[in-house]
Design brief:
- This protein is of the alpha+beta class.
- Helix content is 25%, strand content 33%.
- The chain contains 6 helices and 17 strands.
- β10 and β11 form a beta hairpin.
- α4 packs across α5.
- The protein is globular.
């Protein structure tokens, strides 16, 4: 699992003689990323920010910033957007999720943007636990189970979460980026990181925050598989061999009795109670017992 990442000199984003095969569009309708095929490679264009070219096997990535775009912005795009897609070309299973270590095992939180994955991970990481990843959840088979592979030792937070969780604990902040007001906090004494793989014990799909107490609901394998498909990083769905292998691995993962829906109130003052409920639920003796 290696990626050779290089940053070239800045250049303007000229029209491309290439095949556009996919786009990412933000909820407000703003174009976020264009996906092109260029020969046997891929080019990801983030308008007015940078172009990233990926080799077919995901092993090499080169970035061309737009003039005036900071190195911190390029690093941010690489870590959170481009690298997970490159890993998917290496037959790695990467999901939109965060994860923490509890009692030596991995607990993952998966959900759509805005569901609180990073805030929940940071809440644990500032309260005596260690986090494994923020947003790019890399999972791989291990001895009949699955394990979480740690990612970059940092967590991104909106201003309200920053103020509530890390504002006064001395956590180091990375340089700001040019397309989001989210701040990236680096692991250290204030936010503690786990750098070793951990067996995946529980996966919680986060709800909308309509419940007034933490509510856990068991999921069938079919339900879990549908959610895992929805939250996977995939560079190209027309790569049939890779897609089939990805689906097979997702099916094996979904066959584990570890998946639950979790909804809880989205109030910072309730996070301590939510953490306690998660720890209690995650370490019930009988994994097949659903709430």
């Amino acid at each position: 699992m290696t990626v050779d990442f290089q940053v070239a000199d800045a250049r303007p984003q000229m029209p491309l003689d290439a095949t556009l095969f996919h786009q990412w569009v933000l909820p407000d309708g703003t174009l976020w990323t264009d996906f092109y095929r260029i020969g046997g490679a891929y080019l990801l264009r983030f308008p007015e920010l940078a172009d990233f070219q990926l080799s077919q096997d995901g092993g090499q990535i080169q970035a061309w910033p737009v003039q005036g775009v900071s190195g911190a912005t390029i690093q941010h795009l690489y870590l959170n957007q481009v690298s997970p897609l490159a890993l998917s070309r290496q037959r790695k299973l990467v999901l939109h999720g965060s994860a923490v270590e509890i009692s030596g095992e991995g607990i993952a939180f998966i959900g759509e943007s805005g569901r609180g994955k990073s805030t929940l991970a940071a809440s644990f990481a500032t309260d005596g636990f260690r986090f494994l990843t923020d947003d790019g959840l890399l999972v791989e088979p291990c001895d009949g189970d699955f394990q979480i592979v740690p990612s970059h030792p940092s967590i991104r937070l909106w201003g309200d979460s920053e103020e509530a969780l890390v504002g006064k604990n001395g956590a180091r902040k990375a340089r700001p980026v040019q397309f989001t007001s989210k701040a990236r906090f680096l692991a250290g004494d204030g936010i503690v990181f786990c750098g070793q793989p951990r067996r995946l014990r529980r996966v919680y799909f986060l709800g909308e925050g309509v419940q007034q107490e933490p509510v856990f609901e068991g999921m069938t394998g079919r339900e879990a598989l549908m959610e895992l498909v929805k939250h996977s990083f995939l560079l190209e769905i027309e790569a049939h061999e890779l897609l089939a292998a990805h689906f097979d691995e997702l099916s094996c993962l979904a066959g584990q009795p570890i998946f639950y829906r979790l909804d809880y109130p989205r109030r910072f003052e309730d996070l301590s109670r939510v953490r306690q409920a998660i720890v209690k639920h995650a370490f019930k003796v009988n994994l097949h017992e659903f709430d």
